[in-house]
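Review form for a predicted model. The reviewer records the input and the model, then writes brief findings.
Reviewer: anonymous (R2)
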Amino acid sequence: MNSGQFTAEPSSEDTAEHDFDVIIAGCGPTGAMLAAELRLHDVRVLVLEKETEPASFVRIVALHMRSIELMAMRGLLDRLLRHGRQRPVGGIFAAIPKPAPEDLDSEYAYLLGIPQPVVVRLLEEHAVGLGARVLHGGAVAGFEQDGEGVTVELADGRRLRSRCLVGCDGGRSTVRKLLGVPFPGEPSRNATLMGEMEVGVPPEEVSAGVARVRETQQRFWLRPFGAGVYSVVVPAAEVGDRAQPPTLEDFRRQLRAVAGTDFGVHSPRWLSSFGDATRLAERYRVGRVLLAGDAAHIHPPTGGQGLNLGLQDAFNLGWKLAARIRGWAPDTLLDTYQAERRPVAEDVL
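Model under review:
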């Protein structure tokens, strides 16, 4: 189904009437990757990031093989490897065997565990190095699209004109909400606490406790980062208000309830919680406005599915949007973005 067309061809006059070719809302991994992909084709890009400072927490994420391949293609893998840790692919989840590395069709048959802020920083540096502009503290407050472009209004009252707008602004996407695209799915039924903190017992005691609990509870782990710091994941007592961050006492109480001990956890670096809601946007495109990453699909963060889907959304959309803007392809090419990427997200959900 065609999600709406735009017909203006690029020209010197058109360029003069638009501040940018593409405005991207959100400078997370998806937005930064998309900006870089567009700059490879000399598309004028502005990325609006509502936050003024990087995230204060250091969540470890896993880059999957196909994402690692994309990073290698763009010359970014060596920099990522310096900050990450390779992990073999394998294990059992829900009684479904995962493939062994030697059975996978890739020279990068591993997962790369890496702090998400590092991924964001390197991708933003990559995009800026290619000529993208990033405005931190720039929040989208509204937009209007017409046959010639999109007028984006910022929270501070400024108005900018572009040929297209892409919402990469997360699961609570302002762009998606303003666009009126339905976001159906399943609400959270289970809540999970996640954070990084130090433990007060020997590593062997942690390992034994984790092994015992994981015989019956998969939403549980304590994974060492070194220097006594662990990533801790434990079921929450109930699906609560995620607007209120959990406390260290919440973690202690739930660790005792699930494992019989709180492992002496202390000195948290960051504490968070997540639910198991799954939602998928009905459309990825309405005219000159498109959605990518968590703005188009959400699911639990375990396994890093959202991050990897978002990177691959950006890789798929980047060259297509550039081809349309530069006049190399017909408008219908943009409809293949939804046709190709939405089924992938649907399979993950």
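Findings: The first strand starts at residue 20 and ends at 25.
Further findings: Confidence is low (pLDDT under 50) at residues 1-13, 91-97.
Recommendation: see findings above.
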